[in-house]
Write a structure and sequence with these properties.
This protein has 7 helices and no strands. It is an all-alpha fold. The mean pLDDT is 84.
Length: 199
């Protein structure tokens, strides 16, 4: 791929990607279609760099973003018409942990066979990503902890491939994940107060 084209796409997707984090913290549904568009462009870039683990994650992202779009579009009885923010239950923690471990066990040998530069890290990153996407689609407060961890993984991987612009982007994502958590936590507390007041 031409270096100028790649850099232009990286800058464009970075700006658009940062906007989706801000949009998502406010629970605007437009976050999902924008994410789908960004993922499609990033798949093109990562295929050129042979980042097969990230390519697999991108394909998974397209599927889960479509699911998140569908789930957030469901109407609720809340005044804001938004899906309520909730916490992850103990059973969900156990189930997602088991699924994550199985995901890693399946993907690691596949990525290694494909010649991935960092097969184990990319397998772990994919597992965290799937769980983070699912928890975000269901508006789980803990999703931001997972995004923060995933951003750290991404920074390491992109630096290893000399994609410093992408690495810098995920550093900002890491900071924004803290902001998103604070925003959702504030909304969650407000929901709880409304529930108590309504009793």
């Amino acid at each position: 791929m031409d270096s100028f084209l790649r850099k232009s796409l990286e800058i464009t997707t970075t700006i658009a990607g940062l906007s989706t984090v801000w949009i998502g913290s406010r629970r605007y549904i437009i976050m999902w279609p924008i994410s789908i568009l960004i993922t499609s462009v990033n798949l093109f870039i990562c295929f050129d760099r042979q980042l097969y683990g990230i390519i697999f994650k991108g394909i998974t992202s397209l599927i889960l973003s479509s699911y998140g779009w569908y789930h957030w579009s469901k109407k609720t009885s809340q005044p804001s018409h938004l899906q309520p923010i909730s916490r992850v239950s103990k059973n969900e923690i156990i189930i997602t942990f088991i699924i994550g471990c199985c995901y890693i066990a399946i993907l690691y040998p596949i990525f290694k066979k494909w010649g991935s530069a960092l097969p184990l890290l990319e397998a772990i990153g994919n597992a965290i990503f799937v769980i983070a996407m699912w928890t975000t689609a269901h508006m789980k407060l803990e999703s931001y902890f997972l995004w923060g961890l995933l951003n750290i993984f991404s920074i390491y991987i992109y630096c290893g491939k000399l994609l410093f612009w992408f690495a810098a982007k995920y550093l900002v994502y890491l900071l924004l994940s803290f902001y998103g958590y604070l925003r959702w936590n504030k909304d969650f507390k407000r929901q709880q107060e409304q529930i108590i007041a309504g009793k």
